[in-house]
């Protein structure tokens, strides 16, 4: 069975991260899950590894509300970095915000594949991952 090699969670909610990691690990669809508690740590990792596609994720689950650098700021920085990355990275926003303006802003961003409102079910995670595997 095909799998995703790397997945990244960018979220400061320890409970969401714990439950999401556990749910994904039980599927055996993802080999490695990296977690960053804020966008700055994540963008720094991506900058350091932009020429190392093996270290880069295929998929990012991005929260919007975080300290230091929030999800919107991460997307701004990622937009500048994306041309230097030779790997397709699929970004899903996973947020508890149900604000129509957040959803609209996310859908206008070409780098964002979808906006998912928390809590995210295990079935939804499996659907996202399998969809990405099928697209590879």
Automatic annotation (TrEMBL):
Modified residues (4-aspartylphosphate): 63
Superkingdom as given in the UniProt entry: Bacteria
Gene Ontology BP term (one): phosphorelay signal transduction system
Database matches in Pfam families: Response_reg
Keywords: Phosphoprotein
Keyword Phosphoprotein appears in the UniProt entry: yes
Domain Response regulatory: 6-133
Gene3D superfamilies in the record: 3.40.50.2300
The UniProt record lists the keyword Hydrolase: no
PANTHER family for this protein: RESPONSE REGULATOR RCP1 (PTHR44520:SF2), RESPONSE REGULATOR RCP1-RELATED (PTHR44520)
Name of the protein this chain belongs to: Response regulator
């Amino acid at each position: 069975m095909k799998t995703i090699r790397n997945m990244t969670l960018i979220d400061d909610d320890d409970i969401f991260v714990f439950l999401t990691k556990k749910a994904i690990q039980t599927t055996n669809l993802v080999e490695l899950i990296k977690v960053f508690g804020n966008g700055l740590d994540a963008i720094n990792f991506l900058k350091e590894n932009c020429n190392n596609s093996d270290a880069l994720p295929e998929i990012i689950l991005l929260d919007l509300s975080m300290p230091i650098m929030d999800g919107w700021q991460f997307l701004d920085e990622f937009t500048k970095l994306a041309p230097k990355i030779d790997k397709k990275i699929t970004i899903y926003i996973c947020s508890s915000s149900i604000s129509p303006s957040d959803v609209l802003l996310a859908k206008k961003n070409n780098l964002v594949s979808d906006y998912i409102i928390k809590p995210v079910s295990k079935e939804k995670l499996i659907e996202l991952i399998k969809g990405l595997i099928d697209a590879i």
